[in-house]
Design goal:
Elements lengths: L1 H23 L8 H17 L23 E3 L9 E2 L2 H15 L5 E7 L2 E8 L2 E7 L5 E3 L2 H4 L17 E9 L2 H13 L8 H9 L4 H5 L4 E10 L7 H10 L9 E3 L1 H14 L7 E8 L2 H7 L1 E2 L2 E2 L2 E5 L4 E13 L4 E13 L2 E7 L3 H7 L6 E5 L7 E5 L24 E2 L7 E3 L6 H12 L11 H9 L6 H4 L4 H5 L6 H13 L5 H7 L7 H11 L2 H5 L3 H5 L6 H12 L1 H12 L7 H7 L8 E5 L7 H10 L3 E3 L8 E4 L5 H9 L2 E3 L1 H8 L2
Parallel strand pairs: 2-13, 21-22, 21-23, 23-24
Antiparallel strand pairs: 1-6, 3-9, 3-10, 4-5, 4-7, 7-8, 10-13, 11-12, 14-15, 14-17, 15-16, 15-20, 17-18, 19-20
The structure holds 2-(butylsulfanyl)adenosine.
Length: 667
């Protein structure tokens, strides 16, 4: 009887280890959380009744007792080194040249994301985790074994065959962005101090003395190297990584192998993907793939010659707030903006950062003159992430919430439950008028080329233009009277304005600048209602029947079309000749239904822009994608079609000409 209980304990442990491996390493779980928890529960119960059969590497034994004193010291069997850095393509090429010279041939390289966490060495003996240590000064670190045991993705026992007797796995402990945010929210809810970034959170958590607390922190680990090993695991870096993965160790994904050229491309690709990754990275680590070549290259001081970290431009930088200004947007939203002492961050010089709203100012407690940390990630507008209190000794008074619009002095309002404060001035407010016009002429709206922000400012200031309809009343004579406007450019502007009259219903709706009606919603509304009149008279139920339109958007739409001044401007625009093809008519005549299909457009079309063609395809139910894949139903190839056409041909995707497309549209 008891022998069979013992066998059950072993089988359960093995089964759970298998699920851990599938979940954490392969990223392909085959059971859900509930089933997993049931297995763990059964194991815990059996072990509670038969403590003599509990092994230290049982999945139930992750959380141990708190050490009496702090962490003890671990002397690393093999030193944990650091990496040299390169900061641009030229420096990377120098690294390549140096290694090429020393090796007598261009090396094959690997590239992998450089995780922003802290280095860890985990020692396995006979496949069982016996010790884990931080890097420390490289020669010796802290013994964090009890804490590391709580990290769920780190196996307590390795799996598979041919595991060396001694194997030190090295890699990075880090925290995923989502996990970091959730954890901070929880800490805040408990009234505890939050961490400023995932890196600090990972470091702070791993160095907690109480393993129980560490177990509650969502730490992750990826291996990128090794220390002492009693038997070789491969002849290349990539091969060793594959071995580690086969032992059940989670390995840094996204390993690229190739020539220096390939690595350069990988750098660009990784930089573009950077903000979409689930965790923060601060560069790409490049290594010589062959271990024999690595040995030839050797080490200099505390870093290997065979590897380097190609850093990304920093996304965070410290600077100073010069002033906090208030900006009034198109919909009257008053946005506080921090004017900054210019600072180079995320690859550009930044001198403004959005503060979003007054709740955010209060949360950050940011004031003019403060030293702040700002962040610019990808194309995202720069943000103030925190005040550097230590560096902001004498502080100014906090900015107060305005009661009147800073531009037109109309009263402001704050809808209940909203963080945003709005000017109630509408068209009376010069700022809203200008923003509204800028939106109206923008590329995805009426697309009036040649009417930019500067010209609109002048036109508004001179009183020549107040509403979008006024644009269509402008004459060359009006424009040549303006400063620095030659006859030729004046007539170009007038022509561009006239050309914009031919548009689509979706563009027109978007151009109107109805609150919360972005490009996509405008498109859906145009398709659903077909005609402007029908949409203008639609009641709430009819609006809410449209996908993506909820009660808030529906009420904004109704509100907009009910306002006499808006109706008036629309009437004027139509009278002045703004028009679009009658899509309702086409749709009802056509029996074409492209639902479920994915179309891609490439090359130059003669009779319409790609945007227009895409709009019509969407009107017929198709999805329009930007790249060709095996899932593409059809590629429309205009003139000068390039790689997409080649790819579609290679994949055997249906290819249509513009003429065939026009036939499909019934044109
Ligand atoms: S290889 C000989 N690969 O970056 C040192 N390091 O700046 C071998 N790091 O201490 C390190 N991701 O903590 C390597 N894919 C990666 C890495 C990586 C992050 C960290 C590591 C190291 C530091 C050096």
């Amino acid at each position: 009887m008891s022998e069979s209980v013992r066998a059950r304990i072993e089988a359960l442990a093995e089964e759970i280890r298998g699920h851990d491996y599938r979940y954490h390493v392969l990223d392909a779980p085959i059971i859900g959380d509930t089933q997993y928890d049931a297995l763990l529960h059964e194991l815990k119960q059996l072990e509670a009744r038969h403590p003599q059969w509990v092994t230290p590497d049982s999945p139930t034994q992750r959380v141990g007792a708190k050490p009496d004193q702090g962490f003890t010291e671990v002397v690393h069997a093999i030193a944990m080194l650091s990496l040299d850095n390169v900061f641009d393509g030229a420096e990377f090429l120098q690294f390549v040249e140096r290694t090429t010279e020393r090796l007598g041939a261009t090396p094959e390289l690997t590239a992998e994301p450089k995780l922003d966490g802290l280095a860890l060495s985990i020692r396995y003996e006979q496949g069982v985790l016996v010790q884990a240590a931080t890097r420390g000064d490289g020669a010796s670190g802290e013994n964090v074994t009890q804490n590391v045991r709580t990290i769920r993705c780190i196996p307590l026992r390795l799996r598979g065959a041919h595991i060396p007797d001694v194997l030190e796995v090295r890699g990075e402990v880090f925290m995923r962005r989502h996990a970091f945010e959730a954890m901070n929210q929880q800490l805040a809810a408990q009234g505890e101090k939050c961490f400023v970034n995932p890196r600090n959170a990972a470091a702070g958590s791993l160095r907690q003395l109480d393993p129980e607390v560490v177990a509650s922190r969502p730490l992750s680990f990826y291996a990128y190297g090794w220390g002492e090993v009693s038997a070789p695991l491969g002849e290349t870096h990539a091969a060793v990584m594959a071995s580690l993965q086969s032992f059940g160790v989670p390995v840094n994904p996204g390993l690229v192998i190739g020539s220096p050229d390939r690595i350069e491309t990988a750098y660009q690709e990784l930089m573009e993907r950077r903000d979409q990754l689930a965790y923060e990275i601060d560069g790409m680590v490049v290594k010589v793939n062959s271990l024999a070549a690595q040995e030839t290259l050797g080490y200099v001081a505390r870093a290997p010659r065979f590897a380097t970290a190609w850093k990304f431009p920093a996304q965070e930088a410290a600077t100073q707030v010069i002033a906090i200004d208030l900006q009034v947007g198109r919909t009257g939203a008053i946005t506080p903006v921090a004017r900054l002492k210019p600072v180079f961050v995320g690859g550009v010089t930044v001198s403004n950062a959005t503060l979003h709203n007054f709740d955010e100012i209060e949360r950050l407690d940011v004031r003019p003159g403060d030293a702040v940390m700002i962040r610019r990630a990808g194309d995202v507008i720069p943000q103030v992430i925190r005040v550097l209190t230590e560096a902001s000794a004498t502080r100014t008074a906090p900015v107060s919430i305005p009661t009147a619009c800073p531009v037109c002095a109309s009263p402001v309002e704050r809808a209940s439950g909203e963080a945003v404060i709005r000017c109630t001035g509408g068209f009376v407010c010069g700022a809203q008028r200008l923003e509204h016009l800028k939106h109206f002429v923008s590329r995805k709206a009426m697309d009036i080329d040649g009417v930019g922000e500067r010209l609109l400012e002048v036109l508004c200031a001179q009183g020549l233009v107040q509403t979008p309809a006024d644009l269509y009343r402008l004459t060359t004579a009006d424009l040549v009277n303006l400063e620095r406007m030659a006859e030729k450019s004046a007539s170009n502007v007038i022509e561009a304005i006239a050309a914009s009259k031919q548009t689509t219903l979706a563009r027109f709706l978007y151009a109107l600048g109805i609150r919360d009606v972005g490009e996509a919603t405008a498109r859906t509304l145009a398709t659903a209602f077909g005609q402007l009149e029908t949409l203008m008279d639609a009641d709430e139920a009819a609006l809410m029947a449209v996908e993506d339109v909820g009660p808030v958007v529906a009420s904004h739409i109704q509100h907009f079309f009910r306002a006499p001044e808006n109706r008036h401007v629309i009437d004027e625009l139509l009278e002045l000749g703004v028009s679009w093809p009658d899509t309702a008519h086409h749709a009802s005549r056509s029996d074409v239904d492209l639902s479920g299909q994915t179309w891609v457009l490439t090359g130059t079309l003669e009779t319409m822009t790609r945007d227009e063609a895409a709009e019509r395809l969407r009107g017929l139910g198709a999805k329009v994608a930007s790249s060709v894949s095996a899932k593409t139903t059809c590629l429309v190839a205009g003139s000068n079609a390039g790689s997409k056409l080649a790819k579609a041909e290679a994949l055997g995707v249906d290819i249509k000409t513009e003429t065939e497309l026009l036939e499909l549209f019934g044109l």
